[in-house]
TrEMBL record:
Protein name: ATP-binding protein
Nucleotide-binding found in the keyword field: yes
Record-annotated membrane-spanning stretches: none
Any one Gene Ontology molecular-function term assigned to this protein's record: ATP binding
Pfam families noted in UniProt: AAA_16
Superkingdom of this protein's organism: Bacteria
Length: 390
């Protein structure tokens, strides 16, 4: 019996669509690999939760490894200062790099690696001390200097030992503090001044607030490349369903695909969830086909899972945020105006800025221009309307 190939909440086996975005990453990699120089400014992908930021970054990482890069992955979080994490991730990446030759050449590499790893540990601490001191006006120069030499040393080391260069991947960048963003942007700016010395590319992902946060953190933050990720097109949604099953010798009926594409509205997490619940409902043998009947049998399981996610988001909201969400849900599906939410809460529209910002920060709602917002998770509005205490 083939095993379930769908991956709700995990990196997909097949990354559907995203050809344009992958070309962006490949463009940076090609520049580093071909000219041994900096791949360009920070490339940031931004999107609400569940749209596929991490999946795209992981695919970029795989591509980089195939092209001979050493890659360092940092999952930024509010719990951990980001800059030391970058230092540690680079240390680990160099350590793991299997570009290390055996014999004498290998031991000299090891020696350099160890020296660098030791240095990495200490600058990490220094960087943090600097950042912690909060000199809001001037960016912490020492921290920038340390990160700069760390990235320079690490990327040239990779290159000297026959690698294409270093790829630094920063997921959840919106959780970095303004100071940390400022150090990062200033560092990349300085490295750009000596681009030919720095065979490095930096690719990041974050919630839709990230471009604004970066632009606030450094005046030239807007020189970064911001690319928003959208839901998958119908064709790509179908490919996301067909590909993984095909690899297990299992097909899909057209009606089943059409039903999931409609139900998921192209939201990648839902595509994986519905693919998975359909698969479990059918328990298909190799050579068989997944049908509309199996989709329908799987739906209640998917809805339960989605309801659990809705409950978790609701539970993580403060009382004020919950009132905001309730007013927003009551105003209807789709894009909701600030005025409608304020009216629903019975307050002035200026009074809703704080819960609005916090909910955007948490990825529960997203701005869609002209002051309009919408829910990021399908069905969340209906869930909120169904609550007794909302
Ligand atoms: N291009 C894609 N093709 C197929 N499945 C995808 C694609 N992108 C994402 N997915 C699936 O969608 C779900 C969410 O993906 P991912 O975790 O990458 O999103 P995210 O934007 O990083 O979310 P979060 O903000 O919560 O971290 C996962 O189950 C993943 O398997
Ligand atoms: Mg993610």
């Amino acid at each position: 019996m083939p095993s379930n190939p769908y991956t709700p909440g995990q990196v997909p086996r097949i990354l559907a669509g995203r050809a344009v975005e992958m070309r962006r990453i490949e463009g940076l990699l090609a520049r580093v690999a071909t000219y041994g120089e900096l791949g360009g400014p920070l490339l940031l992908f931004h999107a609400p939760r569940g749209i596929g930021k991490t999946s795209l970054l992981r695919a970029g990482q795989r591509r980089a490894v195939e092209s001979g890069f050493v890659t360092a992955w940092v999952a930024c979080s509010r719990q951990q200062p980001v800059l030391p994490e970058i230092a540690h991730a680079i240390g680990r990446a160099l350590d793991r790099a299997d570009a290390v030759p055996s014999g004498a050449a290998g031991s000299s590499w090891r020696g350099q690696l160890e020296r660098l790893t030791v240095e990495v540990g200490i600058p990490g601490a220094k960087v943090q001390a600097q950042v912690g001191r909060k000199e809001a006006t001037a960016p912490p120069q020492a921290a920038i200097g340390i990160l700069e030499s760390l990235l320079h040393d690490a990327s040239s080391l990779v290159r000297q030992h026959g690698g294409a260069g270093l790829l630094l991947l920063l997921d959840e960048l919106h959780t970095a503090s303004a100071d940390e963003m400022s150090v990062l942007l200033n560092t990349l700016q300085n490295l750009d001044g000596e681009r030919t010395e720095n065979p490095l590319a930096t690719v990041a992902a974050g919630l839709p607030v990230t471009p604004e946060a970066l632009t606030r953190a450094a005046t030239f933050g807007e020189r970064s490349t911001f690319v928003s990720l959208d839901v998958l097109s119908d064709d790509d949604a179908r490919a996301a369903l067909v590909g993984p099953a095909e690899a297990e010798g299992v097909g899909w009926s057209d009606a089943a695909l059409t039903a999931i594409v409609a139900e998921s509205r192209g939201y990648p997490y839902l595509i994986q969830l519905l693919g998975s619940t359909t698969w479990d409902a059918a328990a298909p043998a190799s050579g068989s086909r997944l049908t509309l009947a199996a989709v329908k049998r799987g739906l209640p399981v998917a809805r339960d899972q989605l309801a659990a996610m809705h409950r978790a988001r609701w539970g993580a909201a403060t009382r004020l945020e919950q009132r905001f969400l309730a007013a927003m849900a009551a105003a209807g599906e789709g894009n909701v105006t600030r005025a409608a939410i304020a009216a629903g809460m019975g307050v002035d529209s200026r009074a809703i800025s704080v819960p609005r910002e916090r909910l955007i920060d948490k990825g529960v709602i997203e701005p869609v221009g002209h002051g309009l917002v919408r829910f990021t998770l399908p069905g969340f509005g209906a869930f909120v309307r169904g609550l007794d205490d909302a």
